[in-house]
User: What shape does this take?
Amino acid sequence: MAERPQPLDQMKEQREHYLQLDPLGVAEELARLEAADRAKAFRLLKKQKAMAVFQLLDTAHQEELVSSLRDEQVLRLVQELDPDDRARLFDEMPAAVVRRLLAGLSPRERRLTAMLLGFPEESAGRIMSPKFIRLVPEMTVADALERVRRRGKDAETIYALPVTDEELRLVGAVELRDLLLAEPETRVGEIMNPEVRAVRVDEDQEKVARLIQAADLLALPVVDTENRLVGVVTVDDAMDVLGAEEEEDLARTGAAEPLGRPYFSASIFRLARSRATWLLLLAIAAILTVKVLSAFENTLESVVTLTLFIPLLIGTGGNAGAQSATTIVRSMALDDIRPGDLVRVILREGRVGLLLGTMLGGLSFVPVWIFTDRALALVISLTLVTVCTLASLVGSLMPLLARRVGVDPAVVSAPFVSTIVDATGLLVYFLIARAVLGL
Amino acid sequence: MAERPQPLDQMKEQREHYLQLDPLGVAEELARLEAADRAKAFRLLKKQKAMAVFQLLDTAHQEELVSSLRDEQVLRLVQELDPDDRARLFDEMPAAVVRRLLAGLSPRERRLTAMLLGFPEESAGRIMSPKFIRLVPEMTVADALERVRRRGKDAETIYALPVTDEELRLVGAVELRDLLLAEPETRVGEIMNPEVRAVRVDEDQEKVARLIQAADLLALPVVDTENRLVGVVTVDDAMDVLGAEEEEDLARTGAAEPLGRPYFSASIFRLARSRATWLLLLAIAAILTVKVLSAFENTLESVVTLTLFIPLLIGTGGNAGAQSATTIVRSMALDDIRPGDLVRVILREGRVGLLLGTMLGGLSFVPVWIFTDRALALVISLTLVTVCTLASLVGSLMPLLARRVGVDPAVVSAPFVSTIVDATGLLVYFLIARAVLGL
Assistant: This one.
């Protein structure tokens, strides 16, 4: 959209409007504007509010604003971010800009940010906060509370507190609630939970987030290879990770890449780009179906009626395959299905597919007989049984095999499975038709 | 799976094994057992551990255990649950059992649980905790901390504290962190955030959870129609809601209903049931494609080659429709797209579809020309352009219209759109073929 001239009184009105909203309200409104209007609107905010709003924006919008505001203002905004949010933003920006911004930070913030950027993308190290409050078991509860009061302003969370020995090795954790309810002279070692879970700094971010979700944690300690505490991942970051992973899985089940930003803030071109590769690759894979049909052109010429059921049969097979693939991919993400479960899964999915195919094959026999003839009804029913079973097997096998060869199972998702099942389904259909109809 | 006799030493070994695991570890192992083995394994746990494990299990597994343990043990487990978790469990159980269990609770727990069960399903009232600590603005920070210490044991959270007036009307909120860092004689009214967000007790649970996620909250106050505080929703419950909603959306995009339990804890029959209705309904909808093809049987007989491209064309149309539907449904769930945005969305999606169709149509022209002839190449290209545009329009329009008539947009998801697009795509294909080939 072109830049629109904005009269002064309209700007004043908008400024008044933003004064009435809380920072989240402003952030929500900004997310719905077109890119050109967003920076203009952001400039209307007062300093304090601008900071609060900036922290609540998506990384994509933060990055967009950074490239359209003055350097001095950008530096102020970036200095105020938590190191993990800052690292996420820097990831999206050109290296030259990152270097300039890093140079403008205070030495401590620069050191912390550089440390996080040193960990692999999508690892625990990238989403953790290095600003934590550490307790030791020998401390009294009164000392611990005093430490929380003294350092609480700077720490990302004070509600879940890791406990370490002198060498920074994690030995337990204590919730602020337990400190507050305990007698002041009790030792931290007596009330801490020594069975605390922790993750390694190179652990996958989705695993970290799922653990926080499953165990109802407010924060999870992150340790290095020698079990030394290096940071904590907080629940709000875990929610953001799960939101992003959810968007990715859902997008791929719908044959697209995730947008990574709100719908209206993505341009038409960006929307098309997120879909083009998938659409093209799936169309190329679908050339298989043209090949199969060419091979059976003679059969089709002699019994044109066979054509009528092609979309229904491959559609049903595609759906059965999609059902299976979606269930398996999701269960693998949740760790409900593990790599060693391959045979157990295949056996289950094969039976489910057979059950569903038998149901559909049984239900379709009489109607098809009535509208065409008995031989064709038999062909359709047998094809439905076979295709549904096959589709469930392919739909479960492909994501499992993908992981074995090191590919993200979510890539081998519903639309991909459907396309493969289309071609094999056609093959099955014509082989059964030839056998039953004696062609 | 049939009950297997379990030798004593094997049981002893399993008990030892569970002693080594933390409650979450035991809960994870239990979730992977077949139903019959789960209750047996659970009985091996010591009392304290059993409670902790029970609280971490899925509602589906809790319900399963409740029906296979002794009443006395069940009552102890249920009494220890938070009222919101208890309400969720009771929802899944037969009314007679619920009455018996309610009668066994302490009067206070019974009253709180009954209150939650009185709110509509999937509302804020169902997932909130009625056990909160309330502050008033006139209190000093020292008094507030004293109240937190005194009542902290029983409250679901002490980290985010709502502030109300004498009539229980919400006037603000304060984080425990701010209390702890403030001077003891400061008034709560001076440090509280008066712009606190709250939700009505009948608000949809997904909206509540998304708000907690967007604003990085630890807890969100819930109020009645007169703005009086009745509970708080905590971040761990928000994560569970988002997990469940995610499972639902993803399952439907893959043409199935959510399982609501881990993969291996669902029987073959339950797996098949979660898919059967969708598969059957979509097959019935696909009869439309048979109808369209029957209408063009003469065309097919005269140019059999047209058949070869049917799966590729409708597959591509289906994918384009799925892409659009998945994006729109997700954006509606996130409130990025609102009901009033219908025209704006249609215009965007139409252009995206046209862009994608033009790309595919352009790329396919020369290859199809080489392998068949120029007229057919023209038919295929024109069909791709039209079908992709149409599919994007249908894919975006259907979820938007669904919400207008009060249907959950997620029901009108990718597979449903694909099936509709299949039939219209065939119609377009044959009309273009007839026109171009002069049939």
Summary: The mean pLDDT of chain B is 91. The beta strands of chain B are 160-164, 170-175, 199-200, 219-223, 229-234. Chain B has 23 helices and five strands.
